[in-house]
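step 3/5: co-fold with flavin-adenine dinucleotide
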Amino acid sequence: MHMEYADIVILGAGIGGYETFRTLARLLKKHRLPQRILVIDRNNYFTFTPMLHEAATGSIEPGHAAIALRELLYGTPHSFLKATVAHIDPPTKTIQTDQGTVRYGYAVLALGSGVNYFGLADAASKAENVRTLRGALRLRRKLMGLLEGCQTEITVTIVGGGFTGVEVAGQFSYLAAHDLKKLYPDKKILVRLIDPSGILSMAPPQVPAIIQRRLENAGVHFEIGSRVQGLENGRLILANGKTFTTDLTIWCAGVQNYADSFLSADFQEKGKIPVNEFLQHVRANELYAVGDIAAACDSTTKKPCPPLGEAAHRQGAYVATHLAAALRGKAARVKPFRFKSWGMMVPVGEGYGVVVAGPLVFTGFIAWFIRRTVYIFFMPGALRKIKIMFDWALHSFGFRYIIELEDQDADEGPGICPTP
Ligand SMILES: Cc1cc2nc3c(=O)[nH]c(=O)nc-3n(C[C@H](O)[C@H](O)[C@H](O)COP(=O)(O)OP(=O)(O)OC[C@H]3O[C@@H](n4cnc5c(N)ncnc54)[C@H](O)[C@@H]3O)c2cc1C
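step 4/5: write tokens
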């Protein structure tokens, strides 16, 4: 254990934290500022979460949704510490981690959010998720285990009809209709999506109906109107009394705000960081917050920012600009943070998507292609972009990544199939 000091510490190198780093490193260099950045993350890689459902279903190589942080910091004078953050104390400007204590001049909190199981312990231990690379890999391993096992009919249940649930349902329905027929002709996948109130509640009214119709035509069964109450022995129990068998349950139902696990009650509100119009903590101005963990809103309309990559990315760029200006004594010149979404993009399987831009709604291949192209630009690194484009091209002409990855901790497999 050791005590370290850093001028600027970025806690969490996901979409918001990495964008803060990228922009700030450029500004420090441009203005020849001497301050150094320390990036802390529990993983030694950056994860591009919006692509994890594609990694989980073999549409892209799992490693392509992540980039080594040391690779991203290479060539800069800044440093990286692989550590899990346990506690932040704004009055003393100290951070406790499992690798020791770090003192800071400024800090940017970008630790994201977790999965909300709404208190269902069984769901937390038995359902899969696509919130982390580890989760996506586990899901892929389970899927491969089922496909290589004896069962001919596999039921996949997706809990939650938000963006993630819809994207996952699209991938599985496409897999069932295309790759499965080629690679596992004796197998059938049944996809079911469960949500208490319908899909994509935050989208313009015509969008959920378009997407639901598309998914239904692709064979997805919808169970709308009741929430999941239990998950035991391969059965899902709904609050309305219905039960379903399930071989693979993917939990996409909610976001868990967890700033309360890092800060004392005076410095967080309902699991989020209260920030002012410059994204600084309201009671500790040297501490900024960006992304899912920040209770940020547009400074004029006061509309809260959604927990989405687009908001995290723009907040990261803004905080870097504000912080660099503060270091030069010019913070007063920076205007308060504004956020108006550029639009909404939802892929539904391969080759079909929906894009909403202002009053316009585009559907079909073009919308899917726009979404892919835009996302590739959010991914750091030119080489990575090329690798992913290569993956997609190969996948269009060939097959998914279906190598079965064994894990020593994996659950027992299906065993030996009975001889017919
Ligand atoms: C499957 C899925 C699909 C999505 N699709 C879209 C989409 O299409 N469009 C969109 O705009 N948004 C999408 N989102 C939402 C988007 O990914 C998040 O809003 C965004 O990642 C939030 O960025 P962030 O920087 O706050 O957190 P993250 O990107 O989650 O980064 C948090 C970082 O903190 C690190 N960390 C966490 N806890 C600790 C700790 N204790 N110690 C050290 N490090 C820690 C993590 O390792 C991670 O690197 C999707 C999310 C999911 C799960």
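step 5/5: annotate
The two ends are 60 Å apart (CA to CA).
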